[in-house]
Task: inverse folding
């Protein structure tokens, strides 16, 4: 019993030291910029729509427990569903409606979809979901061309490991690039070795990665590792180390932003709430403005990050 307690204590100390050390490095690397968003004024972002509507796809994250509200609407299958087919009081319908209300030009409700997948904490599950999502988007593009006579503008909003589902699409081999994602918006996505490099693939034209320093779930998400046994065989091990990261490698089309609301960092699940959905269109506009200023001044540093502070009047 005492050995177990001592072992747990050493593990806890190691975990604390690792997270603390990482946080210290992060503070030194970050270039802080404050952006204030007046939440009531967010309603002024509503714009008149001209031309065919853009397509928005929301991808949920890992589901540790069985949630009827999530699983029943997809019949326990990976599938793309128009958001208007969900009940008006459903969580995903509320999120989509909120985002559309605050920027109907970029996120129109008539072409807003939710992609449901198993949500299991397994790399293979995310890869399988990515293949189905790829097929579903291909079919969606064909339906869109038949309806509007053109290729749609596609934006993906992905929470948690839903981001790695989206990133895994870039590894699907094809003779040509069937579609492009104009904006990939990653909310608290665990940055992992197997997928972090995929954000630079031509499929993703613009990438946003939003995270919080208070979000331990993002960095504690374990990664699968393949280890070699004594007999030379390789097997899969569900490893605790290494943890996931918060930061992707730096690319010119990527903006990474640490989010605070009213001067406080937010939790992992809060990225998938109506409150945050209210802020998201404003945050993206602010990030685009900052990104364009950085490009024009050639001041994109390797570790330059944007801290967004959102205050209510």
Result:
């Amino acid at each position: 019993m005492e050995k177990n307690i001592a072992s747990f204590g050493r593990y806890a100390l190691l975990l604390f030291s690792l997270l603390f050390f990482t946080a210290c490095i992060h503070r030194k690397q970050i270039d802080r910029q404050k952006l204030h968003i007046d939440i009531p004024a967010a309603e002024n972002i509503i714009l008149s729509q001209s031309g065919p509507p853009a397509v928005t796809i929301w991808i949920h994250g890992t589901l540790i427990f069985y949630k009827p509200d999530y699983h029943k609407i997809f019949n326990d299958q990976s599938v793309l569903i128009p958001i208007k087919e969900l009940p008006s009081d459903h969580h995903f319908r509320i999120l989509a409606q909120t985002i559309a209300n605050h920027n109907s030009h970029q996120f129109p409700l008539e072409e807003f979809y939710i992609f449901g997948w198993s949500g299991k904490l397994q790399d293979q599950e995310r890869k399988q979901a990515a293949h189905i999502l790829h097929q579903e988007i291909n079919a969606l593009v064909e339906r869109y061309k038949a309806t509007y006579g053109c290729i749609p503008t596609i934006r993906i909003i992905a929470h948690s490991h839903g981001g790695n589902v989206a990133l895994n699409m870039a590894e699907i081999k094809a003779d040509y690039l069937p579609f492009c994602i104009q904006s990939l918006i990653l909310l608290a996505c665990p940055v992992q070795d197997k997928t972090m490099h995929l954000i630079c693939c031509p499929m993703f034209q613009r990438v946003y990665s939003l995270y919080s320093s208070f979000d331990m779930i993002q960095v504690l998400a374990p990664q699968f590792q393949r280890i070699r046994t004594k007999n030379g065989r390789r097997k899969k091990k569900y490893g605790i180390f290494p943890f996931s990261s918060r930061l992707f490698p730096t690319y010119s089309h990527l903006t990474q932003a640490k989010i605070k609301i009213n001067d406080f960092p937010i939790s992992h699940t809060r990225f998938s709430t109506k409150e945050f959905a209210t802020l998201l269109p404003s945050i993206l506009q602010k990030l685009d403005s900052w990104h364009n200023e950085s490009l024009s001044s050639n001041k994109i540093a390797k570790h330059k990050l944007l801290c967004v502070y959102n205050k209510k009047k």
Observations:
- The chain has a mean pLDDT of 82.
- The first strand starts at residue 55 and ends at 59.
